[in-house]
């Protein structure tokens, strides 16, 4: 289906989308037609822009608000037919992957775009050659979401995130961007510096050229020697000398002459600003060029700008200009003079922060799915704080932002994004943000007492509530997963996809609880809940199957979107219930999963440590620094290696004290184990346990009953019966 036709003096561009009707209807059902507007703008040379509908063709005026054409997660084939005099053409995206989707053949440039989850302002850029020169064309528009109102919800999400985590919403190498205005206060992030200079660079370079060609200078007195016939004005001080040498035409008179000098404060500032900006540009340019998907078009553009800056630096004009040492007073020339005012403006802009809303400068933002995930974490933290009736001082943020790429930041994972809720220094709740990862290690999801014995299970948000009414510091765990997805409607209510609900079942079944360091693992996760950008009247939502299932099996979903205060109350009420209910009531309402603790193998191997030719081997176990334990040539076949989790070294004549985690079990030769060379008959295989120190089980060594050791070397046991092997000291 053809959506847009752009007629230009050099070409005709057609933009299509085969599934547009379905996309439009989906967006209209979720948002409403009044929220599906976009404005369009374009470079010079356009004769007409026409939007095609079933009934008629609509001519679009520049900057006019009209129905949107571009949405997330949709393919848009684009055809550009150039006039015969165009010799070459290419797509000019920042992303090489986009440019590679377009091919130029027989005066036709063809390809397609898909914005995935990236919404915001975007543009189609063309670069083409004619006989005269290389030309650039830009067609700008807004990419909208089919699930959230771009003009309201998306902006609100950005605002909320930026209020909580400055710069966390920003990204680079995205297809879309958002306008911003510079702020007077605050440090300038590098991404903001780059964005501002990208818009200002042509003006800045032209201003520098204008100054060099027509600089402001000052007159400075300079002593010179001239003949009498060259004197325009006769100074009083040489009247007698003139009379004395009036007949000597070659006599030279020493006079002071006013000469033009470029070494002014303003020109010194220009030299300084140009030098600083060029250095900064070069540094960031090198980092950007190292990115994987940066396009050749962008690389060439950056190289061209850098070369022009360097040429300005090398201009002979600056040879007579001194070093800038600051201004003693305000300079009117910098504020008002041609060229100087632009240089000064650019310099000041580059020293400012940013306000993300409105403005002519561009900042790329994270995709909407990631933004929604972060926003949900912030919303849940606010709700927990509200329902616990805590002040800001009673909420301890242990969150940290970490650099991710050239310019961008991400919210730290696990321990790096914990929020503790305390009253009178007593922990009431804990919230952790832990986004999806490709890491395949079986590690904690961020809280030290939650473990995953099998493959990683990492819900976005983990909430633990601490209660003391049944057991001291008893914790109940609830999992939340933010999903930027809507399956469709049931009646008048948006519903989440079935697979997301199923995923919460898997999360709950896979995550276990460790009550204390040496206890067996137990099943403790109470429930799991999807947060999704759904809509519907609260009464209708409460009648939906995904909401009713929360009371039935503690698995379900909550619609959560910006500015929807009524449906937010459903989550508020739910969290309040969790906080206020007694532990016994919670357990009684939970399907046997909670009350029936499921034990998982959590065994410990006690092993004799003997002296070895391996340097420092025995001492490392005494110091608690050991990283490897190796067996003899025979290991009891009755011990199941796959069930072992921990190792305790037995020091002969002393006993056991320390606990090590068994990180890995592998085979090893005797030579490798003992680190010996040239010994005959010592190449037999042993078992090697790679270790990581966990804790001291006892304050001092405890003797054990060695008669219970298999092969006089090993005891295979569990922590809960460990005491049976100890011998009371006399």
- How far do the termini sit from each other? 91 Å
Q: Spans with pLDDT under 50 lasting ≥5 residues?
A: 435-448, 451-457, 513-523, 592-601
- Beta content comes to 25-35%
Largest sheet: 7 strands, antiparallel
Helix content: 25-40%
Global Rg: 37 Å
Mean pLDDT: 86
> Shape, please?
extended
Number of helices: 17
Question: How would you portray this structure in words?
Answer:
The protein folds into five domains: 2-146, no CATH class; 187-215 and 264-351, no CATH class; 218-261, no CATH class; 368-589; 603-725, Archaeosine Trna-guanine Transglycosylase, Chain: A, domain 4. Helix 4 crosses helix 7 (296-313), helix 6 runs antiparallel to helix 7 (296-313) and helix 10 (368-388) packs across helix 14 (565-580). By secondary structure, it is of the alpha+beta class. It is built from 17 helices and 40 strands.
Give the arrangement of secondary structure elements.
Elements: E1 2-8, E2 11-16, H1 20-31, E3 37-39, E4 41-42, E5 46-52, E6 57-59, E7 65-67, E8 70-71, E9 75-82, E10 88-91, H2 96-100, E11 103-105, E12 108-114, E13 120-129, E14 134-144, H3 150-164, E15 170-171, E16 178-183, H4 190-213, E17 218-227, H5 239-244, E18 252-261, H6 265-289, H7 296-313, H8 332-336, H9 340-349, E19 353-355, E20 361-365, H10 368-388, E21 395-399, E22 401-403, E23 409-411, E24 417-423, E25 426-433, E26 450-451, E27 461-467, E28 474-482, E29 488-490, E30 493-495, H11 498-510, E31 512-513, E32 525-532, H12 538-542, H13 545-553, E33 555-559, H14 565-580, H15 583-589, E34 603-609, H16 617-623, E35 628-630, E36 644-651, E37 655-656, E38 658-669, H17 670-674, E39 685-696, E40 714-718
Parallel strand pairs: 8-14, 28-32, 32-33, 34-36
Antiparallel strand pairs: 1-2, 1-5, 2-9, 3-7, 4-14, 5-6, 9-12, 10-13, 11-12, 13-14, 15-20, 16-19, 16-20, 17-18, 21-24, 22-23, 24-25, 25-27, 26-31, 27-28, 29-30, 34-40, 35-39, 36-37, 36-38, 38-39
